[in-house]
Amino acid sequence: MRSLTVKLTLAFLLIGAIGASLVAVLVGLRTRSEFDRFVSQRDQDALVQALTAYYQSHGNWSGVDTMLADTPPLNFYSRSMKLIDPAGTVLLDSGKTGSDVPLPPDWRTASTPVQVNGQTAAYALFPPTSSQPAARPNGPSPDVQFRERVTSAALMSAGIAALIALLLGLLLARTLTRPLRELTLATEAMARGQLGQQVVVRSRDEIGELAHSFNQMNADLARASQLRKQMTADLAHDLRTPLSILRGYTEGLQ
C-alpha cells in the first residue's frame, strides 16, 4: 500500500523537479542567445575601434577594404558590414549587396558612428537579426546589456516555471482530493436518509481504506434498516392476526 504521505511527497518532488528543469532549460536557451549577442556586439566594437585607428593613421578610408580583408579576425568581424560616410555614401559593403540597394531610412540611428577627434568620420552599419539588434551607440556597454538580459531571462523563466508548477499543483490537488469530495457527497446523501450510497475506491492508500470502510458501513446500515423494516412489518402482521380473530368472535356473539 502506498501511503498518502508518500504520494504527497512524490507530488511535491515532481513539481519541484519540473520547475527546476524548466528554469534550467529556459535560462540555458536564453543565456546562449544573449551570449551570442554579447559576443557579436564585442566583435562589432573591436571592428569600430580598428576603423577608428585606421582613419586616425591614414586620414581617409582608402584601402580600408584591403586592411580588413588581410587582418584576422577583422575580416570575420566585418562580414555583412556597410561603411557609410556622413553624407550617406556607401564606402564599403562587405555584404556584397551592391551599391544600388537603398539604405534603410533609419540607417543613422541603426549604425555605430566611427568618431575621430570628436568628429564622425563614418558609420558602421551591421545587419540586425533576431538575436542581434542594431547597435545603439548611446546605450549601455555590451557587458551591462548582457547581464541585464540574462537577469531578465532568469526572472522570466522562473515566472513561467512557477506558473506551470502552479497548474501542475492544481491538477494534482484535484486528483488527490477527488475521493474526498465523493465521500463528502455520499455522507451528505446518507444523512438525508439515502442509505446504500457507494463510492469508487480509486487507490489503496489511507483515502482508499476510508472509502472502503465507508462503503462497508453504508452497506451494513442499509441492511440493518431493511431488516428493521421487515421486522416491523412482521410484528404488525402478527398483531393483526389475533385481533382479527377476536373481533370475529365478538361479532359472532352479538
Automatic annotation (TrEMBL):
GO cellular component: membrane
EC number assigned by the record: 2.7.13.3
Location in the cell: Cell membrane
One Pfam family it belongs to: HisKA
Residue ranges occupied by any HAMP domain in the UniProt entry: 174-226
Record-linked InterPro entries: 2C_sensor_his_kinase (IPR050980), HAMP_dom (IPR003660), HisK_dim/P_dom (IPR003661), HisK_dim/P_sf (IPR036097)
Membrane-traversing stretches: 153-173
Main localisation: membrane
Catalytic activity, reaction form: ATP + protein L-histidine = ADP + protein N-phospho-L-histidine
Entry's Gene Ontology molecular function annotations: ATP binding; phosphorelay sensor kinase activity
SUPFAM superfamilies hit by this protein: HAMP domain-like, Homodimeric domain of signal transducing histidine kinase
Membrane topology: Multi-pass membrane protein
Protein keywords: ATP-binding, Cell membrane, Kinase, Membrane, Nucleotide-binding, Phosphoprotein, Transferase, Transmembrane, Transmembrane helix, Two-component regulatory system
Official protein name in the record: histidine kinase
Organism classification: Bacteria, Bacillati, Chloroflexota, Chloroflexia, Chloroflexales
